[in-house]
Amino acid sequence: MFNLKNLKNNKGDMYIDTLISIFIISAFIAIIIIVTPIFIRIYHINQFADRISDFIAVSGGTAGINVEELADEMNVSMDRYEIIVADDAICLPDQAHPEKIQLTCQYTVNVYSTVYIGLGGIVDSIPIGISSSAKGRSEVYWKELESVTP
Predict the structure, then answer these.
(1) How many distinct structural domains can be found in the chain?
(2) CA distances from 119 to 41, 51, 129 (A)
(3) Alpha carbon separation from 136 to 7, 36, 98, 125 (Å, rounded)
(4) What is the pTM of this model?
(5) Are 45 and 111 in contact (CB under 8 A)?
(6) What does the pLDDT look like over 61-117, one tens digit per residue?
(7) Judging by DSSP bridges, how do beta strands 106-117 and 80-85 pair with one another?
(8) Residues with Cβ within 8 Å of residue 43, at least 6 apart in sequence
(9) Do β-strands 106-117 and 126-137 pair in parallel, antiparallel, or remain unpaired?
């Protein structure tokens, strides 16, 4: 039936193996708990950049967008952001309308944030920089910008 010989073994090898296994498993779980908020923040920053990009594509520019209010609405903490319009002469906005982006012009939205993780009293906080970018094209034709293009 059962091998009773292993139960009567009093050498103590199994106790040490069990302790080492429990230590390795608990260390692995601790690392997962420390690293998980970083991936959650990366996901939120990516969604935030995509939402800004979609808003710019539909509105045709950056005039009606309030990034800080949108960040508060989505509960995203960010350090800074930038919107880069393509270098084409057709796509560059003129001085009278710097916030408008012409139809099919490409742009990139970059969002930067910092996550601080601690290692349970060993180190207080380690800053980790996170960035996300989303590309898009304007879907609005600005008739008043037509005369400006070369």
Answers:
(1) 1
(2) 18, 33, 17
(3) 67, 29, 18, 35
(4) 0.74
(5) yes
(6) 887 788 888 888 888 888 888 888 776 656 655 666 667 877 888 888 999 999 888
(7) antiparallel
(8) none
(9) antiparallel
At 149, list the tokens: 């293009």
Contacts of 110 (CB under 8 A, 6+ apart): 49, 81, 82, 83, 84, 131, 132, 133
Query: CA nearest 139: which of 107, 106, 104, 109?
Result: 104
Q: The sheet that has 106-117: what strands, in order across it?
A: 80-85, 106-117, 126-137
Distance CA 115, CA 42 (A): 9
Among 110, 98, 86, smallest CA distance to 142 is for 98
Range of the domain at 123: 9-137
Q: Is residue 24 part of a domain?
A: yes
For 55, the token pair is 């808003």
Q: Match 């069990």 to its residue by tokens.
A: 18
Let me know if residue 143 belongs to a domain: no
Tokens of 93: 């906005």
Question: 55 in a domain, yes or no?
Answer: yes
**CB contact at 8 A, 117 and 129:** no
**Residue 150 placed within a domain:** no
